[in-house]
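Researcher: Here's the sequence for the chain we discussed earlier.
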Amino acid sequence: KLVYVPTTLLAMHDVTTSLKTSICFDGRKNNIGTFYAPLKILIDAAFCRTLPRGELFSGIGELAKNAALLGGKHAEGFCQALNRDRINSEHGGSGEEFAIDDGMLSTLLALGIE
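Model: Thanks. This is the structure I predict for it:
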């Protein structure tokens, strides 16, 4: 039995869309993992607030890829959560202060949950 607690946006998205669960070990990326469905998935948005900017954009890149590949609600939800007007209105239009709030995170992660 497996309970999975993803700690990056990329891992949170992977587990909600494909049940991919993996960890990095011994300096190698995703070298221990499974596609077995965990008994529970515990997603805590607070982990995303601790991530470096590059890690957030890594997760957003994965979300963009799936939005392009899957289309439909994935593309619509991605565009709605990350639209220019929303980001500019929340951060004074600078783009420098880009952050993912809990509402945006919930919207993006819900795209993979059926």
